[in-house]
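Here is one chain, start to finish.
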Amino acid sequence: MSKKRKIISWSIYLSAIIILLVAVFLVPSVEKDETIQDAMQDAVLHEHNLISLFGIKNVNPGLISGFVVTGIILFAAILIRIFAIPRFKYVPGKFQLVIEEIVGFFDNLAKGNSPHHNRFLGAYIFGAGVYIFVGTLFELIGLQVIGIHGNPVTLPAPLSDINGAIAIGCLSYLVIMLGGIIANKLKGVGMTLKDFSLPISMSFRLFGALLSGLLVTELLYYYIGLSFVLPVIVGVLFTLIHAIVQTYVLTMLTSLFYGEVSEKKEKKKKEKKALA
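Its structure:
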């Protein structure tokens, strides 16, 4: 790149920064109907921005997000199964290669942590991982629905609702217990119950990570002076990082504990005697 092009590019960057700063300081403040404390509290508890579920009951936006994300995943799975998988070839194309890499990642994760019982584990962590990843990225769409008070409500990530995080944490714990029961009967139940804090830690790890990104973005949007460009950068970065990290963490923890409780104790004792 020549010196003239570098000077031009740097001048464009500086001009954009100056314009942004001028806009931040010159835009007048707007009175809000609620304080920043109320806005952030509602982002956690969803006490005011409720949505009517077919006129039956008022529910949290996170539940609607969960239904929408589940529908998107199921619809995409049906399309892939009908139109893509029958056309898979021995030499994979780009789309086939992506699908095989994703499935292979979770399959190898299951086999590496649970060599004896991994078929169901691989399917579960694949489903859970896809749900967490897609559900986390879902908030970037900014889909809005009408709340019970007639106000627009942006649907959040399903797992930024504490109920959704607890549900997937407890479900993962039950899957781990199921692996212990299949391999070691009642002993497997005892081995799983000794880690009674596992569903709590998995649930609140998901909830805390996703909620932190939501609160930071909510804070930036609340102050109009900070709502130029910055929320887009922060929101996208937080969402992408959380989607990747939380998907890996939960699937890794589930496969590790599943492999531990599903390992048969008789085989372990025989291996020790053989080494002695």
